[in-house]
């Protein structure tokens, strides 16, 4: 405690206080708040002020200084709540009013400081807290963990430009309610369980039969609104509905639209949420007719979305660059952007990590701005730190990942197999870092993150603590790797 007292005395006199992270220092009329890092690299909240100022914190230690109290407090949920009331910029914000936003999906909860250093002054809202329920289950975290990690980083960096928090890929009312109660101002509604994918492969006879089974009044609405009509979206974009593409749009997406409307009325309106709709979980790309149909049906019911995620042509596989025809992507993206602009929202690009080939198109075409989601690429950059500083551990991680790849592939569509990834018998501590530059090996390491973090023997985590310890000891490396890699994303997006 004496070291903290000495440090605060110096900070109060506008000097450098050893251990006090300068970016975190917040001086107010009634006190001082800051983050203190001890010799073991552990971080604490320190507050200097009156008893009334500090009495509601959970305190680890305290001492008197100049007729006031100094407290040392852990970075707990309760203390985070106190701080968010005092410094409102520690609370996440909606994306409304931001043309550009970038989802960062920090699965380990230790990347946000580096992200904030990168995004400061770029005019892009960093969505620091972005996790799906699946990712929470795979990492053993909670939404409270995710949001607190982001908020403490925001305070530590003194970042007052705003950050987002996205309850990502939520599929039912229970998941949405959980995210809202934890304080997430944004939800991404995953409509995949209401999208009837098989319609895309129906015969004409089957398509007609299923469509005619719908209520007559519903068919009357769709036909009077769309059938054999053209909608001029822009000077170059016209959407035309014939019988086939109308029936497909209705049968594939109408249930998803009804689900979105129900969730909007039940959660988005009462809680004033930032709303994204994900329709990218389909087996075929979203056509212009599909996109227009969904957007128009939502508009007719006064549903306001901030962003929508169509399924684009080509492949957006995890951990690797875009696979597909870039000219075709640009041509189709221009159409989707025109539709989004027509209806007043932005496009959202899911699985955006490492999709360097399409970023120039997204950056130049997106007139209203863009939202890009990344996640697993931060995990892979964490592994670069391991590969540099604990090579033996990295060899163990890759060996475990290869052994458990088939289990992990149940959650992801990837091309990696144990045959086409770098083989174990060719690796050692001297070349283990090559696994992070090979496409198939990157996918192996990407999709097994949850299994790696939760792997236990005799009730003890085998890898998790070692990974966190290495990142803690080599934070500067992690910051460097993250800024270089995510910086490449942002630069190619013209930011």
Descriptive account of the structure:
By secondary structure, the chain is an alpha/beta fold. Helix content is 45%, strand content 16%. The protein has 20 helices and 17 strands. The strands form four sheets. It has an eight-stranded parallel β-barrel, surrounded by six helices. α12 (326-343) links the parallel β13 (307-309) and β14 (346-349). α10 (243-271) crosses α11 and α14 packs across α20 (475-492). The longest helix has 29 residues, at 243-271. The protein is globular.
Q: List the total number of helices.
A: 20
Q: Summarize model confidence as the mean pLDDT.
A: 97
Low-confidence residue ranges: none
How far is it from the N-terminal to the C-terminal residue, by CA?
Answer: 44 Å
Structural class: alpha/beta
Shape: globular
Short description:
The chain has 495 residues and is α/β, with parallel strands linked by helices.
Task: Considering the chains and any ligands shown, give keywords for the structure.
alpha/beta, 8-stranded parallel beta barrel, single chain
